[in-house]
Amino acid sequence: MSALLDVEELQVTFGRTAAVRGASFRVERGETHCLVGESGCGKSVTALAVMSLLARGGQRSAKRMRFAGTDLTSLSDREMARLRGNRMAMIFQEPMTSLNPAFTIGSQMAEVMTRHKGGSRAAALDRAAELMGRVGITAPGMRLGQFPHQLSGGLRQRVMIAMALMCDPELLIADEPTTALDVTVQAQILRLLANLKRELGLSILLITHDLGIVARVADHVSVMYAGEVVERAPTAELFRAPQHPYTRGLLSCVPVPGRVQRDRPLGSIPGVVPAIGPGFAGCAFRSRCAHADETCARAIPRRQAGDAHDYLCRLEPDWAELQPA
Amino acid sequence: MLRLIARRLALGVLVALTVMTLAFLLTRLSGDLAVSIAGPQATQADVEIIRKAYGLDRPLYVQFFAWTGRAMVGDFGQSYFFKDSVANLIQKRLPITLTLGLVGLSLALLISLPLGILAALRENTWIDRGVTLFTMVGQAVPSFWLALILMIVLGLQLGILPISGTGTWQHFVMPGIVLAFTAIPALTRLTRSGMIEAMASDYIRTARAKGLSRARIIFKHALRNAAIPVVSIAAVQLGFMLGGSIVIETVFALHGVGYLGWESIAKNDFPVVQAVVLVLAVFYIGLTLLADILNALLDPRLRTG
User: Fold this and answer.
1) Residues B100 and B247 in one domain
2) Domain match, B146 and B258 both
3) Contact (CB<8Å) A149/B208
4) B46 and B154 together in one domain
5) How many CB pairs under 8 A join A and B?
6) In terms of domains, do B100 and B209 share one?
7) Last residue of some domain: B38, B72, B106?
8) Does A163 touch chain B (CB under 8 A)?
9) Distance (Å, rounded) from C-alpha A84 to C-alpha B205?
């Protein structure tokens, strides 16, 4: 069976700034796929581009962008709106401000259902109460009549998740859903997403900068850097045998039991993600890479390191053994 | 919600009392009322008779409490000039001013809301700049000048509207337009900025992610939030309109409360002046209260205050 979401060579520009430069990744049915990378690497823009939710001025193009067999690039705004909230849903990083302060929780949840599936408001409210119970909100009947300002951040994110599930979507895009929440609530939300994936057969595209989250929930990982997917692999393989120097750098920044020596400091990657102007060629990481040479300014090949594992670098898959970083 | 209303109501009563005191004191400060009522040809004896007849010989606080006491039950005394009770005069004139104010506000909202929304949705295009230019020009044009231009064009050259008087509904069109123009610039700009802010907000992104129709996103989710400051200002503007209609009522010879106030000031008819000031103040207070209630209905966060 083909992938649920298949994105090939996605490009997004805002004026002269290229935010996404040929990102390619695939989300399989029933899996959690993580887009990981540091701030400003184009993760969120990629997700918004898939949903056609780019801010004004954002231009999107792609060689291929298929969702469940439908070519997303050929859809009109109206057709796209029919998919959003219905078959593909999205939750955001800012639970405090993502709900409309002027309407009750119930009304905001119900309108998704009546919009896409028709039916009465009462039926939609029943469904909303059921889903609120499912995402672990107590007393859903009372919550339906409340306004967002009466709920905590964790509760609001649960409401967002329940709202996203109203129409039984096939794909849930979660853009840093736990970043704004405190650690205990974070863990609850991640567990909830994992349960929902298992129970509902949901596919999740999870955007995060946190490799700890990736290790816990992802089936597959795409590492993004400066608007490109520089490495894709199954999660276990990525943590066992990372290939791209950037991925290695990211992993060295995180303490992993058994991997870190007590007397050696944690790694860090010098510098920041560069702004990429038009006409940029070669590897965007070369200015921060310890292994860069003059060939890095030319076109970079995509190398295979396993069945489902590839990366974007001039170095051969076994470079690390020859030349430890 | 009820607590909010009760608190605002109490505040409104205090404001009304303050206005009554000020209105009373200011009319007394404008000189010896007995002299100005009697006129320049009056003898000292005439002035004394008038002073006694109108009770102006009593101490100031006695006069004040006598006036406020009667005003509480709707008795504002007799007009010196019109040979009628002040309450009657105001009752006859009020409908004209209210009609004018409501026509003005309706026109203002009908024009500024769509313009503001359109400018916000087409931010930084020539439509947006055109609207901004229009509001700037509208702000700069004095209302008496606009009134005269409309009279010349619509009244005299095209002859489609009457230029003065209060006979038919057509008489209210031109004054209504002029009055509306005092509020349109502020309301348009407020709608525009409110809509721009709302459309860029996270909850609108959520509404789009939910796949809602564009009309529902704009008119339900964004406008509801953008309307909150507009409602506050619209109520205040209507208050200004009722007070500020003095100029427009005079230019168009509409015999409303504003015109009555202007006439009585000119003729030292101070019971009328005091009553007009008080009536306008009470309207202003009522409108502010109405705006608070409307805002609480629009914004649930204000309901628990």
Assistant:
1) yes
2) yes
3) no
4) no
5) 76
6) yes
7) B72
8) yes
9) 12
**Residue matched to tokens 């430890």:** A324
CATH code of residue A236: 3.40.50.300
Residue B266 lies in a domain: yes
Q: Is residue A97 classed as helix, strand or coil in its secondary structure?
A: coil
CB contact under 8 A, B224 and A103: yes
Span A8-59, pLDDT tens digits = 999 999 888 888 998 999 999 999 999 998 888 889 999 999 999 998 888 9
Residue A147 with chain B: CB contacts under 8 Å: 300-301
Choosing from B72, B104, B132, the residue where a domain stops is B72
Strand partners, A222: A35, A232
What single DSSP character describes residue A44? Answer: H
Q: Find residue A304's DSSP bridge partners.
A: A310
How far apart CA A293 and CA A316 sit, in angstroms, is 14
Each residue's pLDDT tens digit, B7-47: 888 988 898 889 888 888 888 777 777 777 777 787 888 88
Q: What value does the mean pLDDT take over residues B257-286?
A: 86
| pLDDT band (50, 70, 90) for residue A325 | very low
Instruction: Name the residue with tokens 């205090």.
Output: B14
E strand or H helix at A183, and its extent? helix A183-200
- Res A45: pLDDT: 94
Query: In the structure, what pLDDT confidence band is assigned to residue A324 with cuts at 50, 70 and 90?
Result: very low
pLDDT at B188 over 70: yes
Nearest CA distance, B223 vs chain A (angstrom)? 10
A140 within some domain: no
pLDDT digits (tens, 9 = 90+) for B44-88: 888 888 888 877 888 888 888 888 888 888 888 888 778 888 888
Distance from CA of B222 to the nearest CA of A (A): 9
**Biggest alpha carbon–alpha carbon distance for chain A:** 66
Residue type at B284? Answer: Y
For residue A174, the SS3 value is strand
Residue B30 contacts A where some CB pair is shorter than 8 Å:
no
Statement to judge: residues B110 and B142 lie in one domain:
yes
Over residues B271-287, mean pLDDT: 87
Establish if B299 touches chain A: CB-CB under 8 angstroms: yes
Show the 3-state SS of chain B. CHHHHHHHHHHHHHHHHHHHHHHHHHHHHCCCHHHHHHCCCCCHHHHHHHHHHCCCCCCHHHHHHHHHHHHHCCCCCECCCCCCEHHHHHHHHHHHHHHHHHHHHHHHHHHHHHHHHHHHHCCCCHHHHHHHHHHHHHHHCCHHHHHHHHHHHHHHHCCCCCCCCCCCHHHHHHHHHHHHHHHHHHHHHHHHHHHHHHHCCHHHHHHHHCCCCHHHHHHHHHHHHHHHHHHHHHHHHHHHHHHHHHHHHHHCCCCCHHHHHHHHHHCCCHHHHHHHHHHHHHHHHHHHHHHHHHHHHHCHHHCCC
- Domain membership of residue B228 (yes or no) is yes
**Residue B243, pLDDT score:** 74
Domain count, chain B: 2
Question: DSSP assignment, residue A80?
Answer: H
Mean pLDDT of A52-80: 91
Show Cβ contacts of residue B275 under 8 Å, excluding neighbours closer than 6 positions: B71, B76, B86, B87, B90
* B212 within 8 A of B205, measured Cβ to Cβ: no
- Give tens-digit pLDDT for B94-122: 888 888 888 998 999 999 999 999 999 99
ipTM value: 0.89
Show the domain range for B63. Answer: 2-72
